């Protein structure tokens, strides 16, 4: 569970599979991390640009309808307000994890589906940032 010392900011889950998004959300919330789920990368960018959510971390699937996770990450890195938000990739395709781990995506971490919840929560604890109380 997150420790004291600041507000726990939400984690944005970008995942088109409803069941996977729900399982991730439930696991995060059970560990004390608020979660906001969206189905597409386009929806995620809209939520971020409109400041509907100020996430501490993004969990990102790669194969999404309309805009891939790769394209999302490229757009995120080009936006100075969004570039600093760490990303953990969660993919069902093991060959993409090799590319991510070699630095092609500049992701904080990467996991293959189905995800080991303990390993994922350890990474979330490592990369999720806190806001000082009262900060936006």
Q: Which regions contain 5 or more consecutive residues with pLDDT less than 50? A: 131-136
Give the termini separation.
22 Å
Gyration radius, rounded = 14 Å
- Category by helix and strand content: alpha/beta
What is the average per-residue confidence, as pLDDT, rounded to a whole number?
A: 86
Name the helicity range.
25-40%
Instruction: Give the class-level CATH name.
Output: Alpha Beta
Helix and strand run: EEHEHEHEHEHE
- Report the β-strand fraction as a percent range: 15-25%
CATH superfamily: Response regulator
Number of domains: 1
Instruction: Write down the overall geometry.
Output: globular
Contiguous helical run count: 5
Strand order of the largest sheet: 3-2-4-5-6
Level-2 CATH architecture: 3-Layer(aba) Sandwich
Structure summary, number of beta strands = 7
Described by strand count, sense and barrel closure, the largest sheet is:
5 strands, parallel
CATH topology term: Rossmann fold
Could you explain the architecture of this structure?
The chain has 136 residues and is of the alpha/beta class. The protein has helices at 18-30, 41-49, 69-78, 94-101, 117-127, and strands at residues 7-8, 11-14, 35-38, 57-60, 87-91, 109-112, 130-131. It is built from five helices and seven strands; from the N terminus they run ββαβαβαβαβαβ. The chain has one domain (31-130): 3-Layer(aba) Sandwich (Rossmann fold). Helix 2 runs parallel beside helix 3 (69-78). The protein is globular and about 30 Å long. The chain has a five-stranded parallel β-sheet with strand order 3-2-4-5-6, sandwiched between helices. Strands 1-7 form a two-stranded antiparallel ribbon.
């Amino acid at each position: 569970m997150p420790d004291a010392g600041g507000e726990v900011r939400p984690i944005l889950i970008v995942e088109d599979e409803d069941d996977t998004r729900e399982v991730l959300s439930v696991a995060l919330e059970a560990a004390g991390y608020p979660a906001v789920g969206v189905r597409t990368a386009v929806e995620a960018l809209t939520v971020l640009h409109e400041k509907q959510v100020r996430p501490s971390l993004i969990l990102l699937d790669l194969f999404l309808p309309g805009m891939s996770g790769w394209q999302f990450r490229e757009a995120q890195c080009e936006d100075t307000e969004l570039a600093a938000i760490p990303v953990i990739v969660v993919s069902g395709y093991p060959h993409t994890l090799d590319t991510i781990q070699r630095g092609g995506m500049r992701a904080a971490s990467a996991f293959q589906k189905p995800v080991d919840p303990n390993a994922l929560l350890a990474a979330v604890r490592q990369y999720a940032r806190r806001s000082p109380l009262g900060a936006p």
